[in-house]
Amino acid sequence: MKKRKNWLTALLSMFVLASCSLEEDTSSFSTPDNFYQTKEQCLSALNSCYIPLNGTYNYTLFIATEACTDLMYINSGTLDSRLDISPAKPRHGETVWNNGYKGVMYCNAAINGIENSPLEENEKLPLLGEGKIMRAFYYYLLTSFFGDVPFYTEHVADVETQQKIGRLGRMSAVETREYLIKELSAIVPLMDQVRSSEVASNRTGAATGWMLIAKMAMWNKKWDTAIDAISKLEEIYGDLDQYPLEDVMFRNKNTPESIFEIQHSYVAGGLNYTSNLASICMPISRRSGTCEYDGVEIPELGDKSTCWTPWRPTAYFCQNLQTKIGGDLRAKYNMAWEYNGHAFKSVSTAPWPGPKFWCPYLDNSRDGNNYKIFRYADALLMKAECYCQLEQDPDIAMKYLNMTRNRAGIGDYPKFRTWARLMDEIQKERGRELIGEFQRKFDLVRWGIWYTQTYENTGSSSLKENIRPCHEYYPIPDTQVVYSGYALDNKAYDAYFGSTTPQ
Predict the structure, then answer these.
(1) From CA 430, how far away is CA 434, in angstroms rounded?
(2) How many Cβ atoms from other residues are within 10 Å of residue 25's Cβ?
């Protein structure tokens, strides 16, 4: 395999590749003989591990993971919103697959390079920890989105390895998570135990590692493992009440409560990466040349924003879980019935998305907000769920449930009656606290209730018409199935869309 001597050339090639998959030509990514010699060079390689996140976490992933659930819907032209997806039409699934495995490839290359570098072991450790945490994150996303997927950790340094990986079939998501939990459990305790906001340059650190251990353990129903990981986060983050509720807004970046955020920035006329989520989170429509949105002046949103068809909360959410007059302090961030005392014209039955998602002075569709993926409140609700699943001590489960309820001003959960009722309340509280944070669908799938909850509560007639049980996971793109020599499959989709596997 040809090895490039100029790392800058190789790094630039990472930015311009249009896609990545298990069939990727990796000739531009081979480890240079003279690279990974210094800490700075290792950090440069790790920087590439973050690149695929920006192309993955956009408004379409938001639609796939949030607007196709029981909490919200969107009647837009984006076909993912109506679940017009199949192996032949994977929609955003193709982006998640390509970017997910691009991220895996970058992480594997960086980890391999760091392991073989001449750095001292104490210098390698945090760098390896960062690379392994990022690799775990990509596999967490891939398994949550597709279910069983190919898993590999080899650095693709030659054609033989590339071809072997390209022929991998679906592999147990449970076993993949077990491997990653074990790997992270060995290295995360050795890293600096600080909040993510205290890690230099907004890089990932131990807090993200503990959160991933807990997330993957809960998918695998390893409740004690998840509890142990969240306890480590409690030692780092402390009392939830010290974190202001207003910091849940996406505009407030890298706040102390945050564990993992997708980093965005926008400078007018600049080249910094931006995304576009805010465009489907605004009151519509904006009167041309003004900052008037649905009849109300909102100076903070400016007069240049591009407003697309926005998502709306389902009746289940805004008339049941979190009402306008229910006293929940989070409601004013999640939904907007009015602004500065002036009611919008078009919110008689359902409000607009709230300021949690608005981007101040949005320039066209250039959204400079960060997207919050993991927060401490999420971890505390996970701990409540774990104790509930263990069915050992309802008081402890309610203690953690009440932490987010109390911060939101809705008081303690009234009284334990049954484990099923407590679990139902935890599921509802996760919706109230974490709406719009790219994980409602993952929760519903993990609980085994995504299809019924979405079908019964969506406000989209087209989604309700198209939804099938197989849609709980996205299909692997047909192009990848073919390239794998049909080692990959979409058996869950065959009953609805027919099999493409040669007989």
Answers:
(1) 6
(2) 11
